[in-house]
Amino acid sequence: MKKRRRMNPIKMSHTSRKTDFSRLPNILESESIIDIAFKRTKKINLARHPDKIAMYRNWDINKLKEMERTVNEICGDYVKKYPVIEKLDPFYQDLIRIIVDVNKYKIALSSLNWCKNQIMALTTKTVRKLESTRDLDDFKSIMNSYFGRFSSYVNGVDEHLKYLELTRKKLKDIPNIDAEMFTVVIVGYPNVGKSELIKKISSAKPEVAPYPFTTKEILIGHANIGKVKIQIVDTPGILDRPLEEMNNMEKQAILSMKHLADIIIFVIDPSETCGYSLERQEKLLENIRKEFDVRIIEVENKSDLLIRNNGRIKISALRGDNINLLMEEIKGVVKGE
Ligand SMILES: Nc1nc2c(ncn2[C@@H]2O[C@H](COP(=O)(O)OP(=O)(O)OP(=O)(O)O)[C@@H](O)[C@H]2O)c(=O)[nH]1
Ligand SMILES: [Mg+2]
């Protein structure tokens, strides 16, 4: 899939719709939800009423309502705060599809809704039953039957709650990248100087973020091109072999960057001190060209060690040489030149 072109990067740069997956609420297990509901009912006091039967009935009804409210609150919160996958930016959709069984996730969320609705219906029905009798023994058995059904509805969604908690643990490691911002993605073999370059381009210290399926971290930096704020993102450190040799998940993890990249800076280390031959580096560049449909700026780094005679921009990320030249090039693309 090709990345949609942004018509007006200046306007886009003001919208910041970050999806912060690290803030999703922890998901409780059924037993804990049931526990909370029962504990809350213990705090409900018997309110005085001239009619003794009505007094106990109201007490019981208040307990039911409290239990219903507990489930509505807890499950409602999950349903509201957990993302609808289709509404996320394609970048996140791609990443999430690698790490989460989206179908199972959807079923989990809808089962919470189902549980909420069942309990609401059960509560209404039980209130009616309580209202149809004046026998205190009946109250007791009606309430016990409610507690039993309530628990079995909540226990019935336990596997879904567990799956959501598992999902949360996976999602919290998704890097917090602004999918709407003009983005420069830096690509190249390990040790060619990508991180060094991000540090030099960024106006502040880049953030470090983990990336699914990699043990390595990526850097996320920001810079201002005139009035436009751009984002610079590293690629995960798994680009140490050809794309075709990667497993599906690794490949997806790289390809999800497609949705993000407005420009790619491909860093080559002609000194080969990175440990990868020029031939392999050129091959990766070729592959990236095939897969990504955006402007690729090719730079040769480590110019303090070696400068070759070709048309590429020569920089030394370490010394900061020619970084301004590279920034001018980026500026040209941001301004649509
Ligand atoms: N001589 C020289 N060394 C450089 C230059 N840029 C980076 N290095 C060195 O190359 C090594 C790797 O640099 P990094 O920036 O960590 O490389 P990277 O591409 O981010 O590597 P990964 O994160 O493993 O993919 C470090 O020891 C840097 O100091 C440069 O312009 N000149
Ligand atoms: Mg790095």
Task: Describe the fold and architecture.
The chain has 337 residues and is an alpha/beta fold. It folds into two domains: 151 residues, Four Helix Bundle (Hemerythrin (Met), subunit A) (Up-down Bundle); 153 residues, Rossmann fold. 49% of the residues lie in helices and 12% in strands. The protein has eleven helices and seven strands. It has a seven-stranded mixed beta sheet, sandwiched between helices. Helix 10 links the parallel strand 5 and strand 6. The N terminus is likely disordered. The site of guanosine-5'-triphosphate has 16 residues, from helix 8.
What are the salient characteristics of this protein?
337 residues, alpha/beta, Four Helix Bundle (Hemerythrin (Met), subunit A), Rossmann fold, 2 domains, 7-stranded mixed β-sheet, 11 helices, 7 strands, 49% helix, 12% strand, elongated, disordered N terminus, binds guanosine-5'-triphosphate, binds magnesium ion
- Give the CATH topology of the largest domain: Rossmann fold
Class by SSE composition: alpha/beta
Radius of gyration: 29 Å
Strand order of the largest sheet: 2-3-4-1-5-6-7
Q: What is the CATH superfamily label of the largest domain?
A: P-loop containing nucleotide triphosphate hydrolases
Shape: elongated
Q: Quote the beta fraction.
A: 5-15%
Please state the second-level CATH architecture of the largest domain. 3-Layer(aba) Sandwich
Order of helices and strands: HHHHHHHEHEEEHEHEEH
The major sheet is characterized as: 7 strands, mixed
Got a strand count? 7
Low-confidence stretches: 1-17
When the domains are counted, the total is 2
The unique ligands bound to this protein are: guanosine-5'-triphosphate, magnesium ion
